[in-house]
Design a protein that fits this description.
Elements: H1 2-21, H2 29-32, H3 45-55, E1 59-60, H4 63-70, E2 84-85, H5 90-103
Antiparallel strand pairs: 1-2
């Protein structure tokens, strides 16, 4: 039973990888799954300025720099985040989350982005 399940998963992953590896654009998560955005605010220039004051330049807003954080490891789903914040301390994380909570900004924590289910994709 376990071997059968593993072979089915392996076949499905292989099939998806072949399908998307030739594609120039990974589909948005919202196109792949039935996912709706919650009632969150959009990031504004004032938010970016606040993050900049906390992180001293450790934020990414250039599309080419943000893209790798928006695509899962298997290149199956893609998020739509416009900014990546790179804190170095728990104090910075705390200040960022306090601001996001006050403004109702959605947050997606991300480690190595190596999960196989797309859970770390914004």
């Amino acid at each position: 039973m376990f071997t059968l399940c593993r072979s089915v998963v392996r076949r499905e992953i292989s099939s998806l990888l072949k399908y998307y590896s030739g594609s120039s654009s990974v589909p948005l998560t919202s196109e792949h799954y039935s996912v709706e955005r919650g009632e969150f605010a959009e990031v504004t220039q004032l938010d970016l300025e606040e993050f900049q004051s906390i992180l001293e330049g450790r934020l990414l807003t250039d599309t080419s720099e943000v893209e790798p954080y928006n695509v899962d490891w298997l290149r199956i789903v893609r998020g739509q985040s416009k900014v990546v914040l790179r804190p170095k301390s728990t104090e910075e994380v705390s200040r960022i989350l306090a601001h996001c909570n006050k403004r109702r900004l959605a947050v997606v924590p991300q480690g190595g982005n190596t999960g196989l289910v797309g859970g770390s994709v914004p």
